[in-house]
Structure formats: structure tokens, C-alpha cells
Amino acid sequence: MTHAAAAPGQRTPDMVGQTVVVVGGSAGIGLETARRARSEGADVVLTGRDPERLRQAALDVDAGNFTAFDANDSASLRRFFDGLADPIDHVLVTAGSPHYGPILEMTRDETRDAITGHMLMALDVARAIAGKVRPGGSLLLMSGTGARRIAPGLGIASTVTAAMPALTASLAVELAPIRVNLIAPGFVDTGLSASILGDGLDARREQLRTTLPVRRVVGPADVAALAVHLMTNTAVTGATYDIDGGQQFVE
Length: 251
Prior knowledge:
Layout: E1 19-23, H1 28-39, E2 43-48, H2 51-61, E3 65-68, H3 74-82, E4 88-93, H4 108-129, E5 133-142, H5 155-175, E6 179-185, H6 191-197, H7 201-211, H8 220-232, E7 240-243, H9 247-250
Parallel strand pairs: 1-2, 1-4, 2-3, 4-5, 5-6, 6-7
Helix pairs in contact: 1-8, 3-4, 4-5
């Protein structure tokens, strides 16, 4: 792909000549980050499980490449990264979803999957991109703010979100000079949130509008803006960034 040079007096986009891979890029935060990266001049590569939804997302953001597979399958994940011909600059992992429910009511298999799935995917991606991402590039992981406030039904999700900052910092040391950072959103108004809340979505939105310090609901574009900033700020690694509109302070 080629990108037009900025006109005289215009800002040069920050990511011209860079390639961003989004694992879980067919909707929500992943898709919005791909759109934001494209607006900054980057080429984007999308992955997702649903081939048709992924194809539509790729058309939406003019992605240079897209591949459908289950990112929970470590062999498929490795084949995907091995198959990328050119060096890449940034990888964002948004695939996966949180597990909710009372801890004592979860089966052993459900508990193991909830605890290890998200972290194992992050580790699988880290292993796969070693030697693929250019020095100074980044791996950006996604978690949440569940560990900031414990509540019934959130125990496993809180456990995982408490562990992710430590994993991120460890990977930042071991993958250096590739930078590794973690975004920890609160409620974000996405299709995933809608599927979790169902008929309670509108009430939740209204509650947040009236109680959050920012007096509005956080959307995918907000998280995408932070993601692209962390990709382009080469002084940041091993850090966790909350983005929740102040949710953890009022609930």
C-alpha cells in the first residue's frame, strides 16, 4: 500500500510505513484501533474467528491482509505469524472475553479456562512475535479493571485482571526491545457488552452517564486512541493504563 504525503501545513501521520496486526480485529475495540491506525497512515492486518464478519471489517478499514482463525488455538496462531512475509511494528490482542459468575459454582474446567485462557493467549502471541516485530515496536494487551473492586460474580475476572499487569511487566523485560503494555478498560460500549448485559444495556448506559466523573459512556474509539498512543510513544513499556471514565472510583 502507498500513503499520500501530507499537504503543506498539515501534520504528517504518526504511523506511515508501519504495520499493525490486530488479533481480534473484526469488531469493537480491535476494529476501532485498526481504523485509528489507518488514519495515522499504518497498514493493518486483521484476524478474527468469523470469516464473513472479518471480511466486512477488512473492507471497512481497508486492511491490507486478513485471516480468519481461532486465536485460542496456539498452533493456528503460530502459523499465522509465521506466514506474515514482512516485519511488523505493532500487535494488539483483543481476542477473548471475560468469564463471570460465582467462583464456587464454576466447574473445574470452567475455572481453569477462565484463569488461563486470556493469559495463555498473551503468552502464545508473545512467543510468536519474537523476531517478527521490529525493535521499538510494541505488543499491546487488553485486560480490565475488575481487580480494582471486588464484587460477587466477578471473582475469576478480578483474579485474571490482577495478574495481567505482572505478566505484562515480565514480558516487557523478556521481549525487549519490543515494548509491551496493557490497557485495562472498565465498561466499554461494544457489541460484547451488549451481549453480556442484554436487556440491561440501556439502564447500564444511563447509570454510567449520570455517575461517571466524565459524565459519558466510554466507547471503543476512546480505547483505540489510547492504543495508538501507546504504539507510537516509544518511551512506554511494562505499564498498565486504566481507561474507565473514573468508574472504579464511584462503584
